Amino acid sequence: MKPLIAALFGLLVLAGCGQKGPLFLPQQTPGETVEPAEEPLNQQPTDE
């Protein structure tokens, strides 16, 4: 009885992992350029 339960559990685990359907590669899209911030960052040290 234990081997049957182990086999069923193994099948459930294997059936639940992975993506269903054929594999595919994401479409190649050109990266968007990000403009730097216009105003400079003013970082001041904190007194601790």
TrEMBL record:
Which InterPro entries does the protein's record reference?
LptM_cons (IPR032831)
> Where is the region Disordered?
25-48
Q: Which UniProt keywords apply?
A: Cell outer membrane, Lipoprotein, Membrane, Palmitate, Signal
- Membrane topology term: Lipid-anchor
One Pfam entry for this protein is LptM_cons
Gene Ontology CC terms: cell outer membrane
Record's subcellular location: Cell outer membrane
User: What name is this protein filed under?
Assistant: Lipoprotein
Q: Which organism is it from?
A: marine sediment metagenome
Q: What is the lineage of its organism?
A: unclassified sequences, metagenomes, ecological metagenomes
